[in-house]
Amino acid sequence: MTTGSRRVQTPRAFRRSVRCSAIHGPSRFGLAALRRAWRSASALASACALALAGLLAAPQAHAVHAIAQYGTPKYPAGFKHFDYVNPDAPKGGTLVLANPSRLTSFDKFNPFTLRGNTAPGVDLLFESLTIGSSDEVASAYGLLADDIDIAPDGLSVTFHINPRARFSNGDPVTAEDVKFSLDTLKSPQAAPQFASIFSEITRAVVVDPHTVRFEFRQRNRELPLLAGGMPVFSRKWGLKPDGSRIPFDQLAFEKPIGSGPYLIERYDNGRTITFRRDPNYWGADLPVRVGMYNFDRIVYKLYSDNTARLEAFKAGEYDALVEYVARNWVRRDVGKKFDSGELIKREFPQHNGTGMQGFMLNTRRPLFQDVRVRKALDLALDFQWLNRQLFFNQYTRIDSFFANTDLQAKGLPSPGELALLEPWRAQLDPAVFGPPPKQPDTDPPGSLRDNLLRARALLQEAGWTYRDGALRNANGDPFQFEILDDSGSATSMEPIVATFIRNLQKLGITATFRVADFAVYQKRLDAFDFDVTTIRMPDVQVPGSEQITRFGSKAADTPGSDNVIGLKSPAVDAILKALVQAQTREQLVDATHALDRLLMHGYYVVPHWYSGTHRVASRRGLAWPKTLPLYYGAEGWITSTWWHEQPQTQPQPQAQSQAQPHS
């Protein structure tokens, strides 16, 4: 979405992606449990949250093909396909792509464990009970399930599994497999965040071979989403011929047994992987799958850095590039092949919320525990200069955790917001009860000098004064910190960070830029061993429990959780509880607005910027549907709905390389 947008390819994305939409793409930040494969369908999955949850208010249980929280689903029973696909798209050909994230190598196929780096594209192997549409905010349709039955008291949801559903090994998908998936993901062998994600689901009950019931601790509108969106895999994954089982957390290059449209065909040394469309894929003619997954093969090639990846694209090594760096789009995505039309650049509009991208401040560090210090750092970022000099005026400053949606707090708090905030008035900054803060501006009559003077005053109030050549506290300790990045995105971020560091130097602050290998970077992030880093929290159209793992106090102490900033606030916890328990759209909006006010006034992030389009360069001969989805990630849109105008003849598969896990 933005220059330097480093979308962590993490299972953190699960909570909102949960394969709830067929159109999914990479995410810079999500939930640590699915950290390397379940990427960005976050906005689309959010839609599913309210969609499934809507039935909870129903007076009696019922089973339907689809549900919507407000009104009725767009697509009625018996619909043929989604509007944003081409049902007549030709099948065939190979789509070659580069790193969809900062990942430069992989050492496993299992996306549900914390350790290691998962191969890109493995989400193509798994499916869930339900799936959302990408052109409505709150809807969900059956995928593995052919109907959904939510109990009148909202304390359980029952799914009937389509008898046709099959795993890649030919076995039917059964209720036992669904229960096994839940039990495994909640076990200590899965990434620890799953226990938190599914904590309100007490158990899965096998009613019969094709019927499974999820039971909840309490009535919560989002729980049917979490149950329906849970990835399902076979009980036989990891089972040895002698009947013994490889521990789930030790599964590496054992090929997953899922029900998705693709199979792993071959891979090589943790750098390339080829997926082949399953000729026996069970769901090809489902309305939610018609016109989708048109390529016979999808290949990912992983390059060492952005420069190598861009040059490889120009050399014809892969077919499509989603460009997140404005400078590249204007200055580097050019040349003879673009001039001749062999490579084509287009900008596709999207209606996703912005999410939050910025310099994340780790408040576990004493240095960042004073809000005045955090506000001073925000004042030191000169977005207007960056936009003119580096971004070619392509961006808008992010000024909310829910920007570009009606969930962004504006003006004074509404009565509904005040009802949530008032009990905490004594603990909150009085400014929370006023308008949301505006981001610093250096366009005339504003100036960077004025902003830095304000920052200096705030720092002095917080006990930091300039002496002996540095900004120091009462103990004489200098104000210094490290901005951590990984080698995959350092090239694009370096000029931005350098400008920020230069402004900080004028305040007497010493900041250094540390670049680490991605695996090292991810390990430090999981352990919260950093001062400042830049990440992106994916957008959500309908907030839900992902906000608890991003900002809840309990998550702050959970290694690998989404609460990177380390926020612990009883007021925020109370607002989060109101958010996930909201029974109406109005209650949800009030809670989200209140949360936005608390977060923005807390200055936990120095916000970056966003664009309202996806920038995509592709090879001539690729085609896409005339009707675009509304809420989508570009990479997932390409893999799921594009096609070759004239599919080429496929080469014979080569022998699979016996790659060994990297240390």
TrEMBL record:
InterPro entries: Peptide/Ni-bd, SBP_5, SBP_5_dom. CDD domains: MbnE-like. It holds the Pfam family SBP_bac_5. The keyword rRNA-binding does not apply. GO terms for biological process: microcin transport; peptide transport. Gene3D superfamilies: Dipeptide-binding Protein, Domain 3, Periplasmic binding protein-like II. GO terms for cellular component: ATP-binding cassette (ABC) transporter complex; outer membrane-bounded periplasmic space. This is ABC peptide transporter, periplasmic ligand binding protein. GO terms for molecular function: peptide transmembrane transporter activity. Keywords: Signal. It comes from the Bacteria. Residues 142-548 form the Solute-binding protein family domain.
